[in-house]
Design brief:
201 residues; 2 domains; Sel1-like; Sel1 repeat family protein; TPR-like_helical_dom_sf; Sel1_AlgK
């Protein structure tokens, strides 16, 4: 009986801790949405130090844009990296942007930029998927031009609500460069992919 009580107390404590953690994150998001950035920053800082990847991504964004704190790209990178290491797709996308040539971060590394872009895309991040479409259409970040993959990534991004990708497909800029069989192959590839699985390169 004594062991059972201890187990029950442990479960109750764990549930309470989880609820408090969630409530704090929700409060931080509300403060951010209402543009009370100083309050949001304080709350996200606590959560970020505790290892919450979403809070860490928010901290990266706040440092990158000077919201509630002084704009400081070094700290933005620090928090994006912490979040990305835990699989946060948005943070992976932002780090990918940081590594692109010409970025304000001045840490250009095309291989890292591409690998992080794939990680974010495999997490279902719509902008990352659209960026991969651009990469394959324009043959950047060390890849060769591949319009089938460019179309596939544009479709995956559009299916997830990316307006740029939707406009790209609707405007026919990409499709008119392709044959009907290439478009069919791209659509088949897009329809066969699920979030969390490896993407073709």
């Amino acid at each position: 009986m004594f062991v059972s009580i201890r187990v029950m107390l442990s479960i109750v404590m764990m549930i309470f801790s989880t609820l408090t953690y969630s409530d704090t994150l929700l409060d931080a998001e509300r403060a951010f949405e209402s543009k009370d950035y100083e309050k949001a920053y304080r709350m996200y800082s606590t959560l970020g130090e505790q290892g919450n990847p979403l809070a860490q991504a928010y901290l990266g964004y706040m440092y990158e844009n000077g919201l509630g704190v002084r704009e400081y790209l070094k700290d933005a990178y620090f928090w994006y990296e912490k979040s990305a290491e835990q699989g946060n797709g948005y943070a992976q996308f932002k780090l990918s942007q940081a590594y692109r040539p010409g970025s304000l971060y001045r840490i250009a590394d095309e291989e890292k930029a591409l690998n992080l872009l794939f990680s974010a895309a495999e997490d279902g991040h719509a902008r990352a998927l659209n960026n991969l479409s651009v990469v394959y259409a324009d043959a950047t970040l060390g890849v060769s031009e591949n319009l089938v993959l460019a179309y596939m990534y544009a479709k995956l991004a559009a299916d997830r609500g990316d307006l740029v990708a939707k406009n790209k497909l609707a405007s026919n800029n990409l499709p008119r460069q392709m044959s009907a069989s290439e478009i069919s192959a791209a659509i088949e590839l897009a329809n066969s992919w699920n979030v969390g699985h490896r993407l073709p390169r």
